[in-house]
Amino acid sequence: MQIPLKQYVSLLAHYLKPQQGRVFGLAIALLGSIGLQILNPQILGYFIDTAVSGGSQQSLFIAAFLFIGLALLTQLLTVTATYLGEMVAWISTNALRFDLAKHCLNLDLSFHKSHTPGELLERVDGDVNLLSRFFSQLVIHVFGNGLLLLGILTVLFIENSQAGASLTLFSIVALSLLLGLQSLAIAPWADYRQMSAEFFGFLGEHLAGREDLRANGAVGYVMRRFHEILQRWLPIYQKARFASTILWSTSVGLFTVGNAIALAVSAYLWNQNAITIGTAYLIFHYTNLLNQPIERIREELEELQQVEASIHRIRELLNVRSQLKDVGNSDLPAGALSVSFENVWFRYEGGEEKRGRRKGGTGNGKRETRNGENSSPSTPQSPYPTPQSPLPHSHPPRPLPLPPRRTHPRTPRTHGQRQKHDRSIAATAL
Hints:
6 strands; elongated; single chain; about 5% strand; 12 helices; ABC transporter transmembrane region fold; 4-stranded antiparallel sheet
């Protein structure tokens, strides 16, 4: 299941266009924090070299305060980006929920017969919840971390070409491997979301009818089906989590290799007197910082797998069309409406068609009954017999025979005998 890039762009453009100001502010905050992450280690490297070479304390104090100030500014931009991202996500996902709910309400009865309320709730709300970060930060984070990766590699090339070349090769291999593993987890997460919708649909349907289930003795049957769904759900969840774990373990291994490369390159260049101790620290620090965009890109790709599955299910729901054709609109006249019908027919699903040959109609707010008598529409005549009308082919009621009267004299009972007699009557009634 591969969703074209055009569908991502169209979905983002449709729901983010009304929030252009917030999206622009979010992009500035994220990109600003990324730029400061690249700049701040340079100040720390300058501080280390100045301290080792015996520089002035004034230069050290300026570098220290500048480093602390940029670190605080980075945190402020991060908080601003989080706030704007949550606002964008809530507004966009609520608009998408509204569109999905309106679309489902406009569908015909055959759709609602084949989908339980719990399943629709999961598809309208659960799938949309996964798109919150997609609307707010996913695209900007992928783009921003890509810029952070390029910025780090550029700075490493400026510091030392050998360090820049080795870590660039490492980054290309790491990203290629992670991108190659991305498609492994898309299908399992789509199956997981479908199974989740089926489970909540089953749960909502049977909780609503719990009184009928108890009255008919079907509790055992429902619990058996409940456990069957859980048994089918568990291996699907394990398969999806295993696919995501492959990406996680791969990124952890790549980080270990990256740190080893950075330490080896720094030690070699230090022994060759090609770099200072501050530059060696920068290489190691930028390598750890290089792990951050790679890890974030991996997390965004893992999120993108679930987002892609949710977008596929949402578009599948939006592509469902009602079987009732819309033939247009017309204005209703004032007053009571007249309705005429001829050759009315009906049938159950998969059943035989039932036709009628009678003609009928209504006019002037009155209803035509079977015998041709007009009556008020608020008091239609019932085809069933009323208490005042006798049943067809009925006979007058016959008197019920009375039980024979007691002829022998009643034997007097004591208080204990009467209690024993009453208990025997109660036991017989039970």
